[in-house]
């Protein structure tokens, strides 16, 4: 049996993203699961090599809560860099967290013993960037805690 070679994933921090949201729109139960939409109302991103704002148009997080306890995210938003470039940013991923973590993330009250646990939520995203000034559409998986 041949041995598998593990290749180390090398990555470099691009930016920290802060997103502001409108109120959630509950679409309700569908055959795929419970569907919720979190419209993006703005935000910003800051990094060593790139920074700017999240435009308050055309952005949303389409969240599907599945029967297996995971949530599938499908996020799209438009970024404007400080030098005026427009970038369409999308990411999809599967998130797993406890029900208390999800309630904390939505700003709902939880027992004091559950607070401070939100960092245990794990998202496995695949990001994509597109625009006239984007050099590549390379997609790299990342682990976000």
Concise overview:
With 145 residues, this protein is mainly beta.
Beta-strand proportion = over 45%
| Helix count, DSSP H or I runs of 4 or more residues | 1
Count of individual domains: 1
Please write the string of helix (H) and strand (E) elements. EEEEEEEHE
- The CATH topology name reads Porin
CATH architecture: Beta Barrel
Overall helicity: under 10%
What is the makeup of the main sheet?
A: 8 strands, antiparallel
Question: Would you tell me the structural class of the helices and strands?
Answer: mainly beta
Computed over alpha carbons, the radius of gyration is 17 Å
Pick out the low-confidence regions.
114-120, 137-145
Secondary structure tally: strands: 8
User: Per the principal axes of the C-alpha atoms, what is the gross shape?
Assistant: globular
Q: Please state the average pLDDT score.
A: 78
> What is the straight-line distance between the termini?
36 Å
Q: Class in CATH?
A: Mainly Beta
List the helices and strands and how they pair.
Blueprint: E1 16-21, E2 25-30, E3 33-46, E4 51-54, E5 60-65, E6 70-81, E7 86-96, H1 99-105, E8 122-130
Antiparallel strand pairs: 1-3, 2-3, 3-4, 3-5, 4-6, 5-6, 6-7, 7-8
Description:
This protein is mostly beta strands and 145 residues long. The protein has one helix at 99-105; strands at residues 16-21, 25-30, 33-46, 51-54, 60-65, 70-81, 86-96, 122-130. A hairpin with a 4-residue loop joins β3 (33-46) and β4. The longest helix is centred in the C-terminal third of the chain and has 7 residues, at 99-105. The protein is globular and about 40 Å long. Residues 114-120 and 137-145 have low confidence and may be disordered.
